[in-house]
Amino acid sequence: MPMRHGLTLGELGHWFIDHYGLDVDYRVIAMQGWAPDAGPGHGWPLGERSWINPSPNAPNLSMARAYAGTVMLEGATLSEGRGTTRPLELFGAPDLDARRVIDAMHSLAPQWLKGCRLRDCWFQPTFHKHVGQLCNGVQIHVDDPAYDHLAFRPWRLQALAFKAIRGLYPDYDLWRDFPYEYVHDRLAIDVINGGPGLREWVDDTAAAPGTSTPWPRRTSGPGWTRAGRTCCTDRPRKRARPRTAPFDRFAAAWLGRDDHAGLALGLEGLAGGLGGVGGHAFEADPEEPADGVADVGLGLGKGAEKRLRIRFSCSRAWDLVLKAPAWTT
């Protein structure tokens, strides 16, 4: 499951029931006025309700928007702004050159920085990491007219920041080694991401945005080719139908995309989990505009490949349901 899955807790409950084949009596009471796609709040009623901190370091909507990426800073030696008035909206350290980091991020993958503004800044934490030290850092601005909710990718942005820092400072002690969430046998960054994929991608000098991606268990190989057309409508979400087998249907968040490239990302995550390193194509089913078929190439090494055909259906522009896969060759 992606870090930024785009589901409410109620929708997530439906996902778990469907994914694991759970036999439970489950009902979600729909919220009135819930409009996740409507600006400027995109799910939060700006100007209508007061913000109440759900956590001491969650003081505003900007933090909530950036958190799917900045949470990874808890597994890094960089300060995430705890001990300042803008926690989890910025990152930095006493020994960083923030302007060089921003320039490196723009050079590596400017497409991963869309939807927000980055600004170099100075801050001095009053507690937590680098307490009392003047830090040079980067603030992520998502509260001005430049903010684009569909384009903003906080997880990729933070991954790119790590990659830029590793390139500028190859020997930088980036990963924090301490017990995290009661886990003692893995680095915190691996616990946060569900595996070592992100950390290994950052530390691999040969890996770069566009030729490889920081998803877990994805092997190196050529970039993905994407072909097809938009196949989803924005029809209301339906309750996932129960299945008898726990794994013959599963969902992948579409990372906020509403086009065929976003669908390709969802399929890419699936194929990466199966060890795939090929290309794929997909098309809409003419009889059902929200359904389609995807062919995913799975590299097996030494030039061998199998094709995995997947039928899928979409219930919202950012939610993808992948049905039982079947080998075609």
Helix and strand composition category: alpha+beta
Average of per-residue pLDDT values: 75
CATH class of the largest domain: Alpha Beta
**What letter string, H or E per element, gives the SSE order?**
HHEHEEHHHEEHEEEEE
Report the end-to-end length measured between terminal Cα atoms.
Answer: 27 Å
Shape: globular
Pick out the low-confidence regions. Answer: 216-291, 298-306, 312-329
Helix-residue proportion? 10-25%
| Biggest sheet statistics | 7 strands, mixed
Strand content: 15-25%
- What's the number of domains? 2
Architecture (CATH level 2) name of the largest domain: Alpha-Beta Complex
Radius of gyration equals 21 Å
Total DSSP helices: 7
Count of extended strands: 10
And the CATH topology of the largest domain?
Answer: Aspartate Aminotransferase, domain 1
Write the layout of secondary structure elements.
Layout: H1 9-20, H2 61-70, E1 90-93, H3 98-108, E2 117-123, E3 135-141, H4 154-168, H5 188-193, H6 197-203, E4 226-227, E5 249-253, H7 260-273, E6 280-285, E7 288-301, E8 304-316, E9 319-323, E10 326-327
Helix pairs in contact: 2-4, 3-4, 4-6
